[in-house]
Amino acid sequence: AQTVTQSQPEMSVQEAETVTLSCTYDTSESNYYLFWYKQPPSRQMILVIRQEAYKQQNATENRFSVNFQKAAKSFSLKISDSQLGDTAMYFCAFMKPYSNSGYALNFGKGTSLLVTP
Amino acid sequence: NAGVTQTPKFQVLKTGQSMTLQCAQDMNHEYMSWYRQDPGMGLRLIHYSVGAGITDQGEVPNGYNVSRSTTEDFPLRLLSAAPSQTSVYFCASSYAGYGYTFGSGTRLTVV
What pLDDT shows up at residue B62? Predict the structure, then answer.
């Protein structure tokens, strides 16, 4: 299985500031997908952003953007203008297509983000 | 459009009991998976399916069975519950590489 590492168990940021969550992964594949999921206290898993490895352009979704460094196997999430509603656990995930695992996700252990007033 | 529906939301079992966690999706997704979430461990893959009639084991399959008789349904069976199976269970479905849609989870406690 591919290894996904999130080195920051907990982070804190003030409202309206910018924060970056780190994620590295280990794979020998050249074609894959990377995701960031958000899990607020409600427990629901919410897809935040998706990146295709063959695309060099970094994905962006409103205040959320990624810095995808394929050679370094790094996939960080930047949250701009942080809001109280961004308080959640954030999971980085890897997906390998066309494999026996049928597009199953491998998750990191998560980063708990607290946004303070 | 309900997405992915999991039932029940909460369950308490006694050691040795069996039960089935239900999962249904109405998006005609081919790929479905079951994950368990434990504190500090992220989400770990239990079983997955690439289509009706096709299932396989994930990272932590012991003590669980699955079947996929239809595209919509992917139930997870606990054969003989153990305290180590106390966890939050998520079912999810996906269309190819577009990312998984998750159910709301089942919190299971085995006493």
Answer: 96
